[in-house]
Design goal:
Belongs to the peptidase M76 family. The chain has helices spanning 48-68, 76-89, 95-100, 109-125, 130-145, 158-169; strands spanning 2-6, 9-12, 18-21, 30-32, 38-41. It is mostly helical and 178 residues long. The strands form two sheets. It has a three-stranded mixed sheet, with helices on one face. Strands 1-2 form a two-stranded antiparallel sheet. Helix 1 (48-68) crosses helix 2 (76-89).
Length: 178
């Protein structure tokens, strides 16, 4: 049930819902708070598109938590893998976002952005050195970058997101006659 609004976004409270709160501690835009809750920091969400990216990023972490039983607090490689996947699949590294950040590049630009964003996310939530974060990301990067579940592909834009949804709808179609 909506309890209020912040800059045009409806805030919800309760188990299993998203909540908009002022920035807390080291959390810059969003995070998982306990079980079945995603928290968004209202003073850092700039637009609906930005909120969509943050929610998608956090939902990928929630998906990983359910699917892979991630050990968030003691295994930095688990955290690194989820951060790689979230940066890759949420739109954090879209061309438009990178242009706004004044990051330009053509050769393997998306991979470089995903790696850098994953490292920054780890450093924001863990008290470890940059070298340890870089090693953890590098160790898991190839397999986690290529894991596109639950989308099946990287949804770079709305068109790719529609293709991913179409793929999801047709996922069992080719196996129904076996």
């Amino acid at each position: 049930m909506p309890t209020g609004s912040a800059r045009g976004y409806k805030a919800s409270s309760g188990q299993g819902r998203q909540r908009l709160l002022p920035k807390q501690g080291s959390m810059s835009k969003g995070g998982m708070l306990g079980k079945n809750q995603i928290v968004l920091c209202q003073n850092n969400i700039r637009s609906q598109a930005h909120m969509n990216r943050v929610v998608t990023h956090e939902l990928i972490h929630a998906f990983d938590h359910c699917r892979a039983h991630v050990d968030w607090f003691t295994n930095v490689r688990h955290l690194a893998c989820s951060e790689v996947r979230a940066a890759n699949l949420s739109g954090d590294c879209s061309l438009v976002n990178e242009i706004f950040r004044l990051h330009f590049g053509l050769k393997q630009h998306h991979q470089t952005c995903v790696r850098d964003r994953a490292i920054l996310s780890i450093l924001a939530v863990r008290n470890i050195s940059k070298e340890v974060a870089e090693k953890a990301v590098d160790d898991v990067f190839e397999s986690c970058f290529n894991d596109h579940e639950p989308f099946g592909r990287i949804p770079h834009n709305k068109t790719y997101a529609k293709y991913a949804y179409r793929d999801f709808q047709n996922r069992d179609r080719y196996y129904s006659n076996i």
